[in-house]
């Protein structure tokens, strides 16, 4: 298969992907050597250390903004996720990858603005010393997310049950087992578990630019970075989930920080955490625009030169769509659920397996080889997760009794 034509007018012949470290050290793109150390996989030599690469990938897993290193994307010959799709399946593959990345990042941006919608009014309320919302416009989360979009272009000795929930979730008060940890639970909300976990660990589109920036990049070195990053984030997620649940038990809401407001809205420690989270997600919203806009530009205007009008128009349209979505969707759990059930399995399971099967030639690895069978099983697992999650979420939407809890 003929590869993408490079800016210097030459083509790069296909190279085997699985020939050990020696092949990994060869140039991925053609480059004239002047006697120095040849750059690898790109048109410049990466200088990012192992530790900083772990930090970058960890940030991308946490969704805090490292969704694509712009310098590597715009100034090197690296094949981004959309380009992998094009190499595997031609233009339809590029469209598929672009659509999935767009969906996932719109979901991520919506989740960030959803946090702003419900946390910023509580921060303002705490600064004003109010126990309850005064109903003013600046206490309305819908207004605040629009303003944020325009501008940006504790105490843990909590009793259970506590009085703070008496005015909010009456059905949860004085129920049997309310303050006991449940080691295994199956209910309508279980349908959101796998999608939320999948949404939390998506980082695959960021692996390519991080690999590009890595000093002395090899597959083994990048695998070690991924292992350390995912393990670190897993431990952090696990501790947050366990102690959040052990604090509120059955009273735990979809947005954990919002649950703390039922204990003491003016608590200084919780206020500091709210402010930190708000700063993080608010500054991340414009950064998430880059991969979405890049995917849309590759889909709609692949041959067009850069133009400010197009650049700004896409950003404004995306912000408008996301703001409408955040205002209309009643619960952040729904955003995590639907995006985690569609784009996340695609990016984690389906597309990587399909790309590997399609890109690696059968002459090098036949379809009955161990690695291609594993890739096929991985892809099938993604389809199973997607189908099951969407089915259960749809059933919860149709037959669920309470659709407004959690974020309000």
From TrEMBL:
Signal peptide: none annotated. Residues 1-42 are annotated as: Disordered. Residues 16-27 have a biased composition (Acidic residues). Residues 28-42 have a biased composition (Basic and acidic residues). One of its GO terms (molecular function) is L-glutamine transmembrane transporter activity. Keywords: Membrane, Transmembrane, Transmembrane helix. It is found in: Membrane. Residues 78-152, 182-393 form the Amino acid transporter transmembrane domain. The keyword Transmembrane applies. GO terms for cellular component: plasma membrane. It comes from the Eukaryota. Pfam families: Aa_trans. It is a multi-pass membrane protein. One of its GO terms (biological process) is L-histidine transmembrane transport. The chain crosses the membrane at residues 54-74, 95-115, 135-153, 224-248, 268-292, 312-332, 338-357, 378-399. This is Amino acid transporter transmembrane domain-containing protein.
């Amino acid at each position: 298969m003929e590869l993408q034509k490079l800016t210097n007018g030459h083509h790069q012949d296909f190279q085997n992907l699985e020939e050990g470290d020696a092949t990994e050290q060869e140039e991925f793109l053609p480059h004239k050597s002047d006697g120095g150390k040849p750059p690898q996989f790109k048109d410049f030599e990466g200088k990012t250390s192992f530790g900083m690469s772990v930090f970058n990938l960890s940030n991308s897993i946490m969704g805090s903004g490292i969704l694509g290193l712009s310098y590597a994307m715009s100034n090197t010959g690296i094949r981004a996720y959309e380009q992998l799709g094009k190499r595997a399946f031609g233009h339809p593959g590029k469209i598929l990858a672009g659509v999935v990345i767009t969906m996932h990042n719109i979901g991520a941006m919506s989740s960030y603005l959803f946090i702003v919608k419900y946390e910023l009014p509580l921060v303002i309320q705490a600064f004003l010393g109010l126990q309850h919302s005064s109903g003013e416009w600046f206490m309305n989360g819908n207004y605040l997310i629009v303003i944020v979009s325009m501008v940006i272009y504790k105490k843990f000795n909590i009793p259970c049950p506590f009085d703070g929930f008496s005015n909010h979730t009456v059905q949860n008060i004085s129920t049997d087992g309310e303050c006991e940890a449940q080691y295994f639970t199956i209910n309508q909300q279980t349908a959101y578990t796998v999608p939320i976990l999948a949404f939390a660990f998506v980082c695959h589109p960021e692996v390519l630019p991080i690999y590009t920036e890595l000093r002395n990049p090899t597959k083994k070195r990048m695998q070690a970075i991924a292992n350390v990053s995912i393990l670190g984030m897993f431990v952090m997620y696990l501790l947050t989930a366990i102690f959040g649940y052990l604090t509120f038990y059955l009273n735990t809401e979809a947005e954990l920080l919002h649950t703390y407001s039922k204990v003491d809205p003016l608590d200084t420690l919780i206020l500091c955490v709210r402010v930190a989270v708000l700063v993080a997600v608010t500054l991340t919203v414009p950064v998430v625009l880059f991969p979405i806009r890049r995917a849309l530009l590759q889909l709609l205007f692949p041959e067009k030169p850069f133009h400010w009008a197009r650049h700004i128009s896409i950003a404004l349209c995306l912000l408008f769509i996301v703001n409408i979505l955040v205002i209309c969707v009643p619960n952040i759990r729904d955003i995590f659920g639907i995006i985690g059930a569609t784009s996340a399995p695609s990016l984690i399971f389906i597309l990587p397996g399909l790309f590997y099967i399609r890109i690696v030639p059968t002459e090098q690895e036949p379809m009955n080889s161990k690695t291609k069978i594993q890739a096929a099983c991985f892809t099938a697992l993604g389809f199973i997760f997607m189908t099951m999650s969407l089915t259960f979420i749809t059933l919860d939407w149709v037959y669920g009794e309470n659709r407004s809890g959690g974020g309000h």
